[in-house]
Design a protein that fits this description.
The chain is of the alpha+beta class and about 375 residues long. The chain has helices spanning about 1-25, 50-55, 90-95, 120-125, 160, 170-175, 200-210, 225-265, 265-275, 280-315, 325, 335-355, 360-365, 365-374; strands at about 25-30, 40-45, 60-75, 75-85, 100, 115-120, 130-135, 145-155, 165-170, 180-185, 185-190, 220. The strands form 2 sheets. A 6-stranded mixed β-barrel has the order 3-4-9-6-8-7. It has a two-stranded antiparallel ribbon with strand order 2-10. The longest helix has about 40 residues, at about 225-265.
């Protein structure tokens, strides 16, 4: 049970952290915004920007833009979407997933042509670190830019690895004819453990009270853009819940069988205690508490085994997975104290209640018959 919970939490934690790390948890965009289509510029720093950045539960607010292009190199053609970021962008997420090379530097006075490609796109195009490549941007007219590959990343998710690259926001603003203070969206990154859904009412109120000069923005959860992945995680969570319930039922009835054996062995003692005036409820408590002693010993051993498994798997990653199918290259483990406590208390309470079923047998024991038989 603990292993199933740790693995399910691990999948949710790893995959959600990858999605939110790349795109943020909440996007504030203009109405009709489409990441892959035509984008309408907004003022990157509305009047409430500082208030938003200082909101409890908000870790960072990033200003970004997206622009699709076509890369051609050595006879290979690849569609790609550039995510434009500025010099203030937090690259810690991409630093953790950097495969080789370095992160691009956008602190230069002039716009930089350095880009960070996914390892998969770089391999498909036959690009090596330090190579230059040409990108064609198709719109009212075809615009051509030369970029320089300085690093590659890998998230293990096709939704990002097969499509996105990082570029200088100033390059994209120039290509789209925007001013230096215009962007496509504001990415809001929530602090660990904070639910993005809880921030939406506050964001709506903040936008409603904004100045008339501020752009009309709509906050939307990133989970809606990747609904198929979140639905898969929801199905996984439901499967784990079913497994936990089945395990509790099986273990509970195993304990019922064991307790019934104890009752049959001690039937004469039960009759004698009743004859001496001991109440049925007190006799039932004796056997239930005896059963709970066995349960607690078993749970202690189970927690020890589960703890060793989780610690060794998290440390050495013994069990590997196909990253193209599971979004991670190893069996993920994540077991917060709240989940551990929930599983243990739920199992303990459920088995405790189940153990009262065989004690109904005690109420049917007749002292006269048991002592007479003796």
């Amino acid at each position: 049970m603990m292993g199933a919970m740790a693995i399910a939490n691990g999948f949710q934690y790893e995959i959600k952290s990858k999605i939110s790390g790349f795109t943020g948890d909440i996007l504030m965009t203009s109405p009709g915004y489409q990441m892959m289509g035509e984008q309408h510029p907004i003022q990157g720093r509305p009047s409430y920007f500082e208030t938003l950045a200082a909101t409890p539960g908000v870790a960072a607010v990033e200003q970004v833009a997206y622009l699709a292009g076509v890369v051609r190199n050595a006879g290979e053609v690849q569609g790609i979407v550039f995510k434009g970021v500025d010099s203030l962008y937090n690259f810690s997420f991409f630093e953790r997933h950097l495969v080789e090379g370095r992160l691009p530097d956008y602190r230069t006075p002039k716009s930089s042509n350095e880009v960070l490609l996914s390892e998969r796109i770089a391999n498909q195009l036959g690009l090596q670190l330090g190579d230059g490549f040409t990108v064609y941007f198709v719109g009212d007219r075809i615009r051509v830019r030369k970029f320089h590959l300085v690093g590659t990343y890998s998230l293990g998710m096709n939704e990002f690895d097969e499509l996105f690259a990082l570029a200088d926001l100033r390059q994209l603003q120039h290509l789209m004819g925007w001013s230096s203070d215009q962007v496509a969206t504001l990415e809001i990154h929530c602090q660990p453990g904070k639910r993005a859904e809880n921030l939406l009412p506050y964001l709506d109120e903040l936008i409603t009270k904004a100045n008339n000069d501020d752009p009309a923005l709509i906050p939307q959860l990133v989970s809606k853009s990747y609904r198929h992945i979140y639905d898969w995680l929801a199905v996984l969570e439901m499967n784990v819940l079913i497994i936990l319930v089945l395990m509790i039922i099986v273990s509970g009835f195993n304990m019922v069988s064991g307790l019934l054996i104890l009752l049959f062995e001690k039937i004469k003692m039960i009759g004698l205690l009743k004859a001496l005036g001991m109440r049925t409820a007190k006799i039932c408590q004796v056997f239930v508490f005896r059963g709970m002693r066995i349960v607690l010993v078993g749970m202690g051993i189970g927690n020890l085994i589960a703890g060793l498994f989780c610690m060794t798997q998290a440390r050495w990653k013994w069990f590997s997975l196909d990253e193209s199918n599971y979004f991670v290259d190893h069996l993920p483990i994540h077991l917060p104290f709240s989940s551990w406590l929930f599983v243990n208390l739920s199992a303990l309470l459920a088995i405790f209640l189940i153990l009262w079923l065989p004690t109904l047998f005690i109420s049917r024991v007749s002292p006269a018959k048991t002592l007479k038989a003796d």
